[in-house]
Prior knowledge:
protein-lysine N-methyltransferase activity; disordered N terminus; mainly alpha; globular; set domain protein methyltransferase, domain 1; three-stranded antiparallel beta sheet; about 45% helix; disordered C terminus
Amino acid sequence: MPGPGCTEQRDETISTVQRGETMANGPEVNLQRFLQWLHLNNVQLRGCSIKYSDSNKGFGIFYSKNICDGIQLVVPLDLSITPMRVLQDPLFGPHCRAMYEEEEVDDRFLIILFLMVERLRKNSSWKPYFDILPTKFQNPLWFTDDELSELKGTTLYRATDLQKQKLHHLFYEKMKKLAEELLTLDGFPGRKITFEDFLWANSVFWSRAQNIPLPHSYVFPTSSEGQGRTTS
Length: 232
């Protein structure tokens, strides 16, 4: 049982790390910026820490000590990327609101668009977060043609091919033009967005999206929204 104050140290981790590995300058700088960003946004790391593992595993949240109430991490709801956040954004909102109300786009479209464009904006307030995310993903959508050919004859090959066709259609028919217009309005005319930019945002969404209960005011905000509410 933990002693007074419930601060018993353990070696258990939420994700794995190779001990003794030297952290490269790039990941170390990104991590420090991200930790500072968390602090400025009132995130509380109560019984855990964020560390760099290696180039394959990236960054992880590691258990550091026992907490009496069991709450290891507290993140303000203001850091949630939600459809309402996108619709209220001064850059995205005017272009997306009508499309959303007419059901031309859905919640997932809005968030993937936000991730893709914000990552490409030079002065995005989300840059410290994006910089610690993977730049590529290890799923069949990211396979080269040679790698994908190894799956021929399998149901996974067919499913991957169909999904890629759907994503190509969504990107080239709807998302690419809109995203480039948004970047032009933001002061970056001529910035061409690639399918890989879109594939990154799509992969981030599907690997990190969660359904969490939100207060009514975060779904249908009022003038007094977002004061002092947090989630664990």
